[in-house]
Amino acid sequence: MILDLFGMLRDVLPIILVILFFQYAVLRRPLASPVKVGVGFALVIIGLYAFVVGLKLGLFPIGQRMAEQLITFDTWLWVYLFAFAIGFATTMAEPALIAVGQQAEEAAAGKIQGNAIRLLVAVGVAIGITIGVHRIISGDSIHHYIIGGYLLVIVLTALAPRYIVALAFDLGGVTTSEVTVPLVTALGIGLAGQIEGRSVLIDGFGLIAFASIFPIVTVMSYAILMERVAHWREKRP
C-alpha cells in the first residue's frame, strides 16, 4: 500500500513541476495562494491513491467474479443484461461526463440539455458494451465490429448538425474514465477467462473501444432526428 502511495506521488510529480516551471519561470509570478495549491495537490495524490487501492480491492475483483458467475446460467441473456446495465449505470456516474454535459449546456444557449446528453451517452455506452460482450461470447474478430462502427460514425458525421459533431466525439472520449473503465475491463477479462477457446489478451480487451464508439452514434443520431423533427414542424401549416 505504501508503495502505491509513493508511486502515485511519482506519477503526479511531473504535473506539479510543469505547473511550477511555467508559473515561476515563464509567467514570473508567485502563486496566489501557495498553501491552498499545496493542500489541493496533496488531496489529489491521496484521492488517486485511494482510488487505485479501491480498484485493486473492490472493482476489479467484483467485475471478474460477476462475469464468472453469470456465465454459469443456461442462457447468455443475463450476461447481456448485466453488460447493458453496468454500462449505463457507470456512465451516468462519470464525473467527466457530468462536467462536459454542464459545459455543453451553458455553451449551447438552449440547444442542448446536459441531462439529455448524459442519458444519450449512457445508452450509447450500454449498447456498445453489450455488442462488445457479444463479440467475446461469439468469438468474432474485433476488426469487423470496429470498422463497421467507425463507418457508421463517418456517415453520421456527414449528416449531423455541425454544432453536435465535435461535442459527440468528445463525449465518446470522456465516457471511458475512472468509473467505467475498471468494471468494464474486469468484465471483459472475466468473460474471456471463463469461455473455452477465448484468449484473455485477444478477446478480454476491446470493450472500451465499443464504449467510445457508440456514444458518438447515439448523440449524433439524436441530433439528426431532432433536426428533422424541427424542420417538419416548421413546414406544417
UniProtKB/TrEMBL annotation:
Keywords: Membrane, Transmembrane, Transmembrane helix. The keyword Transmembrane helix applies. The keyword Protein transport does not apply. It comes from the Bacteria. It holds the Pfam family DUF1538. The chain crosses the membrane at residues 12-27, 39-57, 77-98, 119-137, 143-160, 204-225. This is DUF1538 domain-containing protein.
